[in-house]
Automatic annotation (TrEMBL):
Principal location listed in the UniProt entry: membrane
Organism, scientific name: Chelonoidis abingdonii (Abingdon island giant tortoise)
UniProt gene name: TGM1
Cellular localization per UniProt: Membrane
Molecular function per GO: metal ion binding; protein-glutamine gamma-glutamyltransferase activity
Active site residues per record: C362, H420, D443
Biased composition (Polar residues): 716-726
Region (Disordered): 716-765
Protein's job: Catalyzes the cross-linking of proteins and the conjugation of polyamines to proteins. Responsible for cross-linking epidermal proteins during formation of the stratum corneum. Involved in cell proliferation.
Record's subunit section: Interacts with PLAAT4.
Keyword Zinc: no
SUPFAM superfamilies attached to this UniProt entry: Cysteine proteinases, E set domains, Transglutaminase, two C-terminal domains
EC numbers for this chain: 2.3.2.13
Name of the featured protein: Protein-glutamine gamma-glutamyltransferase K
């Protein structure tokens, strides 16, 4: 902005020289200081903080003597230089320099387990001491001198909000956990051991030193080279994220890659994901996400608040967060979600542009949420098979039919995803009753709103297991995902609806995460729910339902049947026949006449179905004795169905849905297509030299893939790599060896850990 003649500008208390700042300075508090001339124009500035002096007051500079030398031009504002050695009163304790000992291979970074971060600044974990060294212009005398460390974070640091920290050397702050003690002293240096509070705000701090002596007070100017990062500390017992298992810490905090599971419960697929939490620039990108949300710095010491903000910001709804979700199949304006193989490219792009990245689906959102590992919170990705999406807080999956048992799609808003991926984070929950610490669900996929915004969690896994859906946050929605029942309603002649069947074991199967210390799948279903059909599991379901919108469902159980129905299929491979078998069992003493209907339709993994492409009906008489029919018995009902890739469309279907209706019962299941098999073969990797990579895959389709691309990313690799391989046909075919450049520091060499395969829609050649 251009300031007219006679208009004065106020700036805050100048506490450092910062050549990268628009004004060349950093600010802390407002003080009256001496006027400075303006040379030309000033950039647009933020609104004046509350309590700032009137704009009519002259611009003043702190601590400058009356007989200033000619002003030093700095940007658009002429600033007086800091006092020279000759201007310092004799006997004043002056700090001429500071060594934070932040080298990656140094003792501080190694002790705090932050040496993997590709940063040169000091990065420490709260609640744990670190060492620094001050350079002095005269010897330190504890009888004459007082030294105080000053740390500030955020735009308006305040002592009352723990964003402006003053730490007297040798005098611990009672109850605050901050302290600094002298470990060594020489004629020109002072070594200190600094301890941070285990509740400290996480983020990037400005760091300075104040001294007091008989000759007066001195403050070392703030210098951006002396900024430090403070993170959560899962190794500290007093920290809310403390995790008492070393192997878990290695896996869920320090491991830079993992496995994400997808597919169906009968055909589990897996993909490697590069979290890259230690890569260059990623820590700043993660902190930028909190800034974009406008999260107050005073709340950044609480992992509950931080994880909840991350769950909101990883999706773009409400707040222009990191990723735009897209389930349409049209990804022409961005990146196909299946093409991402890691978080690094996504986070860097968002940090660089400030615009949401195109596109993501559930596993991509979950992969990016592991930025919580960057902050120091133990985090893992979790896949739930047959995952329910409850839209009306009934805590049941409600499926409606007309009088002839035909689905009423206009009423069937609930859906069952063949898989859904979210995150578990480890923390204490002082906001809940005792017993609900530990793993907490955080889900960034935008499905339903929570308090008006698209976020989900953190929610105690223990609360979910026991149906305690009144405990925050978002327990009803998460409980329904893992342990709701399918409730089938039929329209009656008078227009009302009656429950005709409740399927109790349909939701929440094979809940999976990567095993600690290996690449195997670890089933964690038992921490989310009691054994299916057990008394404890049924009690949890009914406890949860009592807090839902259809609390009456389990009061009068009138849906009992003596005829049971099950459906089984052979392995479904795209383009090949699929056999479907329906088995009926009559547990009653008299015969039953059952009307059977079968419907088959394509379905996305989110539970959204296409048009029915196959349906059949049959009347079956079942004798009144315990007998199973359908597998070669007298009432066998075996259908052969051709399942093919949809042509002439931009989509291929993730799976298909089969429905069998018998009498007053209905059973719905999904079957998936076999995923492409992938294997990765790496040659010897030498730091700084090109490495040959070969990937072999099998296309099981009787069609040629077109426009196929391999995506490769790994911690320490110079940049994510995409390789076009054209049309690989439908046989085994290795790609030509591809060069990969691991441009990384020798002592921290890491080989590529993630690869993925992506192709546009199949074409019929």
């Amino acid at each position: 902005m251009l300031l007219p003649t006679g208009v004065h500008l106020w700036i805050p208390h100048v506490s450092s020289w910062h050549p990268n700042s628009p004004l060349g300075i950093l600010f802390s508090t407002w003080d009256p200081l001496i006027p400075l001339p303006l040379q030309s124009t000033l950039p647009h500035s933020d609104p004046q903080p509350q309590g700032a002096p009137s704009p009519s007051t002259p611009l003043l500079l702190w601590g400058a003597p009356a007989d200033l030398p000619p002003p030093l031009a700095c940007g658009h504002l002429a600033l007086a230089p800091p006092p020279t050695a000759n201007e310092v009163p004799a006997g004043m304790l002056v700090v001429s320099g500071m060594d934070l000992m932040g080298q990656r291979s140094g003792a501080n970074r190694r002790a705090h387990r932050t040496d993997e971060f590709e940063y040169d600044e000091l990065i420490v974990r709260r609640g744990q001491p670190f060492d620094i060294r001050l350079q002095l212009r005269q010897p330190y005398d504890p009888e004459l001198h007082r030294v105080c460390l000053e740390l500030l974070i955020g735009p308006t640091p305040q002592v009352s909000k723990a964003t402006h920290i003053l730490v007297p050397v040798g005098a611990p702050l009672p109850g605050l956990g901050w302290s600094a003690e002298v470990t060594d002293s020489t004629d020109d240096s002072l070594s200190l051991r600094v301890s941070t509070a285990p509740t400290a705000v996480i983020g990037k701090y400005r760091f300075s030193v104040k001294t007091r002596s008989p000759a007066g007070e001195y403050q070392m100017p703030f210098d951006p080279r002396n900024e430090i990062y403070i993170l959560f500390n899962p190794w500290c017992r007093e920290d809310a994220v403390y995790l008492p298992h070393d192997d878990w810490l290695e896996e869920y905090v320090l491991n830079e890659s993992g496995r994400i599971y997808y597919g169906t419960e009968s055909q589990i697929g897996e993909r490697t994901w590069n979290y890259g939490q230690f890569d260059k620039g990623i820590l700043d990108a993660c902190l930028y996400i909190l800034d974009r949300r406008g999260m107050p710095h005073s709340g950044r010491g609480d992992p509950i608040n931080v994880s909840r903000v991350v769950s909101a910001m990883v999706n773009s709804l409400d707040d222009n967060g990191v990723l735009v979700g897209n389930w349409t199949g049209d990804y022409s304006r961005g990146t196909n979600p299946s093409a991402w193989v890691g978080s690094v490219d996504i986070l860097r792009q968002y940090h660089r542009t400030g615009y949401p990245v195109l596109y993501g689906q559930c596993w991509v959102f979950a992969g990016v949420v592991t930025i919580l590992r960057c902050f120091g919170i133990a985090t893992r990705t979790v896949t739930n098979y047959n995952s329910a999406h409850d839209t009306d807080v009934s805590l049941t999956m409600d499926i409606y039919f007309d009088e002839n048992m035909k689905p009423l799609e206009r009423l069937n808003a609930d859906s069952v995803w063949n898989f859904h991926v979210w995150n578990d984070c480890w923390m204490t929950r002082p906001d809940l009753p005792s017993g609900y610490d530990g793993w907490q669900v955080v889900d960034a996929t935008p499905q339903e709103t929570s308090s008006g915004i698209f976020c989900c969690g953190p929610c105690s896994v223990e609360a979910i297991k026991n149906g305690l859906v009144y405990l925050k946050y978002d327990a009803p929605f998460i409980f329904a995902e893992v342990n709701s029942d399918n409730v089938y309603w039929q329209r009656q002649a008078d227009g009302t609806y009656k429950i005709v069947y409740v399927e109790e074991k349909a939701i929440g199967h094979l809940i999976s995460t990567k095993a600690v210390g290996s690449h195997e799948r670890h089933d964690v279903t038992d921490i989310y729910k009691h054994p299916e059909g057990s008394e404890a599991e049924r009690q949890a379901v009914e406890t949860a339902a009592r807090h839902g919108t259809k609390a009456h469902i389990y009061k009068n159980k009138e849906w009992g049947e003596d005829v049971s129905l099950s459906v089984e299929t052979s392995e479904a491979i795209t383009g090949q026949d699929v056999s479907i078998q329906v088995a009926l069992s009559n547990r009653g003493s008299s015969s039953r006449s059952v009307s059977l209907s079968l419907h088959l339709a394509p379905m996305f993994y989110t539970g959204v179905t296409g048009s029915i492409f196959k349906q059949e009906s049959r009347q079956v008489e079942i004798p009144g004795e315990p007998e199973v029919h359908g597998k070669g018995g007298p009432n066998a009902w075996v259908l052969s169905v051709q399942v093919q890739v949809e042509r002439g469309n931009s989509n291929t279907w993730d799976c298909w849905r089969r429905e069998a209706v018998g009498g007053s019962m209905k059973l719905a299941r999904t079957s998936g297509f076999s995923p492409l098999s992938l294997s990765q073969v790496l040659g010897p990797a030498v730091v700084g030299k090109e490495t040959q990579v070969q990937v072999v895959f099998k296309n099981p389709l009787p069609q040629t893939l077109t426009g196929a691309v391999f995506h490769m990313e790994g911690s320490g690799v110079s940049s994510p790599k995409a390789t076009n391989i054209g049309s690989p046909g439908f046989q085994h075919r290795p790609t030509p060896p591809q060069p990969l450049d691991p441009t990384i520091l020798p002592e921290l060499g890491r080989e590529p850990r993630s690869s993925g395969f992506h192709h546009p829609p199949c074409s019929n050649h």
